[in-house]
Write a structure and sequence with these properties.
The chain is an all-alpha fold and 184 residues long. The chain is built from nine helices and no strands.
Length: 184
């Protein structure tokens, strides 16, 4: 795409495609076909490809917006007076959102692309800061690294997505995870 600003109709189409993609990826993950995204946006497949040459490029644009919001919330909580509740509030938001929205889970599970490294790094930094502060405050058991925590979160995402429609599974599983992370 050139550096020229988009015409108003092209900008609206791009925004519609991006909004439809965010909705579709959240519901179905990266496996959703581009034709389905085009249908949801009310545009042709060619319009989607004009703005996003690959599904991965579209996924990147959709997920980066979500990660920016998630990281901003972590930054807000990083200055909380009591780091323990701040950590657990953020962790709950992250795992419950990722347990429902497949796009965040897919982004964390994906390996090897620039945007997944960016997503992982953004979340790693944000979550690492909250984890460190909560451990220093004695709210989270020592010895849990950021890699341990990300592995737990990825496992949570996989488990709840494979389990299907058990409405209480996410909450029960999160309760077990959070109890296991708390310092005794």
């Amino acid at each position: 795409m050139s550096d020229r600003p988009l015409r108003a109709d092209a900008r609206r189409n791009r925004e519609r495609v991006l909004a439809a993609a965010q909705e579709a990826f959240a519901a179905e993950g990266i496996s959703v076909p581009l034709d389905e995204i085009a249908r949801r946006a009310g545009v042709g497949a060619g319009t989607v490809y004009r703005h996003f040459p690959t599904k991965e490029a579209l996924f990147e644009a959709a997920i980066l917006d979500q990660v920016a919001r998630v990281a901003a919330r972590a930054e807000e909580l990083a200055t909380a007076e009591d780091p323990g509740p701040a950590f657990f509030e953020y962790l709950e938001m992250l795992v419950l959102q990722g347990g429902v929205k497949r796009d965040l889970a897919d982004a964390l599970r994906s390996q090897g692309t620039d945007y997944t490294r960016t997503v992982s790094q953004s979340l790693r930094i944000a979550l690492g800061e909250l984890l460190s502060r909560a451990q220093q405050a004695g709210a989270v058991r020592p010895g849990i690294s950021i890699d341990d925590l990300l592995t737990i979160i990825k496992g949570f995402f996989s488990a709840v997505h494979e389990a299907g429609d058990d409405p209480g599974l996410r909450e029960r599983t999160f309760a077990v995870i959070s109890d296991g992370l708390r310092a005794r």
